[in-house]
Amino acid sequence: MALVGRTDLGGAQAALTGWLSTKLSRAEDLQVSGLDVPAASGFSNETVFFDATWRDEGSVRRQRMVARLQADAPGLYPEYDIAVQFGVMRALQGGSDVAVPRVLWIEHDPSVLGVPFFVMERLGGRVPADDPPYTATGWVLDLAPQDRARLADNGLRELVKLHALDTDELGLAFLDRPELGPTPLEQELAFYRSYYRWAAESRPHPVIESAFAWLSSNQPTEHGPVVLSWGDARIGNMMFGDDLSVVGVFDWEMASLARPEQDLGWWLFMHRHHTQGFGLPHPQGFPTREQVIARYEDLAKRRVADIEYFETLAALRGSVIMVRLARMMSDAGLLPADSGMAHNNGSSRILADLLGLPAPEGAGVALISKR
User: Fold this and answer.
1) Are residues 174 and 280 in the same domain?
2) Rounded to an integer, what is the distance from CA 142 to the centroid of its chain?
3) Taking the chain, what is the end-to-end CA distance rounded to the nearest angstrom?
4) For site-directed labelling of 135, which of 53, 222, 327, 369 has its Cα 20 to 30 A away?
């Protein structure tokens, strides 16, 4: 069991202090303070914020840091590999101007915090919220429409910048998954079939199963370029500065090699999820689906193809994730055992709509926080 938890930050503070002293060999009077586990942390990798202060040759040094911990039990995904996340971020840090936080160290020995972890710098800025979504309330809606448009465009520019990178030059061959299939798309489908079997625990989900059948029989004949796929491409995984420029790009746990449309499909789906999926209007200033596609094509200097397929794949991915999330929330006492959320949620309703199927049955659950 991981040492870091909301009830044992003191133990984590002592452990991190001792560990950092081995990384900062010249540091004197090293202190670790301000430990905090964000409320959003818990269904994925646990994240710990902390500050380090030390003296180096008489000068006082301060660094805001973030530790990302390997899950010590099955969580939202069947398994995690923080070494892959660390490797992707380090490759981007050394070979691109994508705004990833600077990774500092990785620790494979679980004796320090109970699980392996890596440490990166902590950036300053604002992140569009998921709970409640940025389409419902918060600082994004407080912006003028033209500023929302600029935020969205800056985010899309960062995605295009990512897709322009040479994966061979970055040394990202470790993201290939040949054991799952000969092409990136077949690999992604195979991964989510396995994920679905694990998450569903033999319970039927007709909309999801129909989607797998449709995606298998309608695979695009055009393969397109293979790029670094972020895996969770959305503005909610970006941090923005006061000028609305992108200062941080986070959450690389689902990175892979894929066609650019796989990320773009997720980008479109996630905004649709945060509007239609929650029964909320499209905020003024944000580009429409068609405008996003046209702008991507303009920035990337290439035609977007088969985007409807990849939007459906994105909705399938979201629906499978919701099956697992519903089980985790039920196990945690946050949902009743007979909740229909696994079947009827924003993702599955969008998926049914894309496939021309009736809306899924079962009582849905509104997930907009009351706080």
Assistant:
1) yes
2) 24
3) 30
4) 327
Closest alpha carbon to 140 in 36, 44, 234: 234
Strand, coil or helix: 363: coil
Q: In b/e form, how buried is each residue of 83-114, taking b as 16+ CB within 10 angstroms?
A: ebbbbbbbbbeeebebbbbebbbbbeeeebbb
| In-domain check, residue 240 | yes
**Are both 57 and 151 inside the same structural domain?**
no
Residue 129, in any domain of the structure: no
Q: What is the CATH number of the domain that holds 298?
A: 3.90.1200.10
Contact partners, residue 289, CB within 8 Å, separation at least 6 = 268, 272
Domain that holds residue 264: 139-355
Domain contains 311: yes
Name the stretches of the chain with pLDDT < 70.
1-7, 39-44, 362-371
pLDDT of residue 323: 97
- Report pLDDT digits (tens) over 99-151: 999 999 999 999 999 999 999 999 999 999 998 999 999 999 999 999 999 99
Q: Say if residues 321 and 213 touch (Cβ distance below 8 Å).
A: no
pTM for the predicted model, two decimal places: 0.93
List beta partners, residue 31. 53
Asked if the structure places residue 308 within a domain, the reply is yes
Residues 67 and 181 reside in one and the same domain: no
Number of domains the chain is built from: 2
- Per-residue pLDDT tens digits for 253-281: 999 999 999 999 999 999 999 999 999 99
